[in-house]
Amino acid sequence: MANSSLQRSRTAGSTKTKFTISMWVKKSANNAKYLMVNRTDDSNRALFQFSGNDGLLFQSKYSNSNNAALETNRKFRDTSGWYHIVLVGDSTLSTAADRTKLYVNGVRETSFASETQIPSGEHYYINEATTNGFRIGEKGDGSDYFDGYISHCVFLDGVAAAYTEFGETDSTSGIWKFKSPSGLTFGTNGFHLKFENSANLGLDSSGQTNNLTVNGNLKQALDTPSNVHCTMNPLTTTHHTFSNANLSINGSDSKTSVGSLGVNTGKWYWEAKITGSTSLGQYAGATTIENENHWDNAPTSGAADVRTWAGNGNYHNYTQSGNTADSDIISTTGTVYGYALDLDNGTMKYFVNGTLTHTDSTIPSDNSKTFFPVSGTTNSGGGGWQGADYNFGSGNFGTTAITSAGSNGNGSLFEYDVPSGYYALNTKNINTYG
């Protein structure tokens, strides 16, 4: 949602003493990021966000003074998985500590760096009428955008609901999972954003017709709490700039970053579209290295591999004992590279704009190594740095949709035909085909 958000002006709440917020969230970046705000100005507002310390922070403020506030000691820094967050406010409760409650993945947060429980019967600012109104994914003044994914965003106006209305424990895995809310009272300003309609992402599914307006270049994603898709992982390097929910990278020196999902069995396909300068090289492929590594130095510990190739025929095969064909790769801006990793038969196929161009037949097929998508940049004579927009099946390169979907996507959207028997890197496919 970076540089995009949703908003709606609003009237006074049904009951200003009670509210519920539920949302599923996958972060793409850490530091201060806003989830939901109802704001007149900085002195009169309610905000719910990830703080600068990566804790969860809620404030209800009148005349520049908090009448309710919570900030967790716990830090939320996972950029690969989804969090289910529920915030419940009810100032009518007799026990002060129960008036504002926070749950993450079905567990109540009880350890706070700061805690101000609302006085009995006072109003939460989240339920006040404001001209700026609700903002989902930014501060309320067009700044501090949330960078990541949000699914099933619910606001109940004047209702304090149980967190179990929105999630439940899977009886087999014990994992907290999505539960579709039903039979709830949403109140005057309540809404339920499912994000199912790509042409109207602010559509309210609560029955209240409290639709929100989209600001910026908001995109629908196939990445959901029920099916987590691979992205590039910003926690593996400090040398790349990540954007578009970690599907776009830009280099700043000769370092690598890896994907958020790894596999050691099965057949997997993904794409990368080259961006930036044409004078520097963009490497991409697969690796067993789980963190950054300089391209010019072979790994010195562990049985690590980096397998990359690009359209001019240069091929890198870094192993513990050294590397081969170590020459710079200059990729063409706009070219779409496809990667088909077969860990059952030990091959890695490289496609250029849909045409098979190179096959590496030395990939281990004994399931002894876990491979991740990898991306890196090398200096090849000056100029700006190259980058890449990755498509792990969402159907977008950066903020631009693919031109036309190829065949064999098996529910995923790629620019070119997916080789038969290969699948997108997501948790449902890994569970079924991995």
- Counting H and I runs of at least 4 residues, what is the number of helices? 1
The count of DSSP E runs of length 2 or more, i.e. the number of strands, is 30
Note the main sheet: 8 strands, antiparallel
Mean pLDDT level: 85
Strand content: 35-45%
With strands numbered from the N-terminus, the spatial order across the biggest sheet is 10-6-5-4-3-11-1-16
Low-confidence stretches: 292-304, 310-330
Distance between the termini: 30 Å
Class from secondary-structure proportions:
mainly beta
Helix content: under 10%
Shape, per Cα inertia axes: elongated
- The whole-angstrom Rg is 23 Å
What does this structure look like?
This protein has 434 residues and is mainly beta. It is built from 1 helix and 30 strands. It has one helix spanning 427-433, and strands spanning 5-10, 18-27, 33-41, 44-50, 56-62, 65-72, 83-90, 100-104, 107-108, 112-116, 130-136, 148-157, 167-169, 176-178, 191-193, 213-215, 240-243, 248-251, 256-258, 267-276, 281-287, 306-309, 315-318, 336-342, 347-352, 355-360, 372-378, 386-391, 396-397, 400-401. The strands form 6 sheets. It has an 8-stranded antiparallel beta sheet, with no helix packed on it. A 7-stranded antiparallel beta sheet has the order 17-18-28-20-24-25-26, with no helix packed on it. Strand 29 and strand 30 (400-401) form a beta hairpin. It is elongated. Residues 292-304 and 310-330 have low confidence and may be disordered.
Blueprint of the fold:
Layout: E1 5-10, E2 18-27, E3 33-41, E4 44-50, E5 56-62, E6 65-72, E7 83-90, E8 100-104, E9 107-108, E10 112-116, E11 130-136, E12 148-157, E13 167-169, E14 176-178, E15 191-193, E16 213-215, E17 240-243, E18 248-251, E19 256-258, E20 267-276, E21 281-287, E22 306-309, E23 315-318, E24 336-342, E25 347-352, E26 355-360, E27 372-378, E28 386-391, E29 396-397, E30 400-401, H1 427-433
Antiparallel strand pairs: 1-11, 1-16, 2-7, 2-12, 3-4, 3-11, 4-5, 5-6, 6-10, 7-8, 8-9, 12-15, 13-14, 17-18, 18-28, 19-27, 20-24, 20-28, 21-22, 21-27, 22-23, 24-25, 25-26, 29-30
